[in-house]
Amino acid sequence: MRHTLRFSFSELRFILLFLAAALSFLKAAQSQVPVSHYAVPLTTEKSLSVQLELGTLKLQLGSQPTRHAFEYEFHSPDTASLILDYAVRDNVGYLSLHHKEVSEEPRRRRIRLDWRSLFGGDEPEEDTLRRSRLKLLLPSEIPISFDFSIGAGYNDLDMSGLKVSDLSLTAGACATKLRFSVPNPIPMKKLRISAGASKLTVEGLGNANFEEMEFNGGASDVILDFSGREIRSSKVNISIGAGSVRILLPKHAGVKIKYNDNFFSSLKLPDDFTQDGDWFYSGNFSQVKGVLEMHVSSGVGSVRMRWK
Known about the structure:
This is Cell wall-active antibiotics response LiaF-like C-terminal domain-containing protein. It comes from Candidatus Thermochlorobacter aerophilus. The structure is a single chain. The strands form two sheets. Strands 5-6-2-8-10-12-14-16-22-18-21-20 form a twelve-stranded mixed beta sheet, with no helix packed on it. Strands 1-4-7-3-9-11-13-15-17-23-19 form an eleven-stranded mixed beta sheet. The longest helix has 23 residues, at about 10-30. The chain has a domain at about 240-308. Helices cover about 10% and strands about 50% of the residues. The chain is globular and about 85 Å long. The protein is mainly beta.
């Protein structure tokens, strides 16, 4: 004998609501990621040396007025994957953060880099970054030198408010935004940036207060924005391989450019630039104090400059 189950409308509605609530609960439980928090107070430090070697995660770096040498919050399925080393020697605090992969699984999994997550649009899938996020806050009171080595991830590096004495950034297959929203209070000896197959945006370079800048790019999509409150005279070396570089120039800066190209590369300058020998000069070159001296070389890439 066959038996047929029959449900009333109210009973069926209750079952559906129960299943929806159960699925919502399971999803919320899965989305909860362990968090570790760590902070070290300032003692005798008069400066900091920060070295970051990071793999697949999302990094957010910023400043805060604090008596801490550093403070971080790390969200990850395995919080032990972030290795910390900190020591003070001769009044210098040496901070090293190394992020190791939780397992070999991320290497076998195809990582889809969705640039919209950082430059507008939806967030990337949680599985892409394995739900690992690092927020690092540093003090605004003392000079800091940086050495970044960043792998596949999404990075927001806000230098605003920090006293940056030196900065070296090596970016792999990632999307990175480096910002100087306000003037760097101290001179930066050198700004070095090396970008692989990545998307990179650098904003407020006129606020970075660097003496010399060196950029090397491979198959990269790069925006270098030299806007800032006051442009100091400085030297900039830009080398691009198979990628493209867009350079935004502030109208209150004078610019002189020497361009080394080959048959497969291209350079586009604003209409007011004129050529004299090997150099190109902006129309306002003789009328302003701050001058950017740029040496640009390109392989099979393109360089585009415009006034901002």
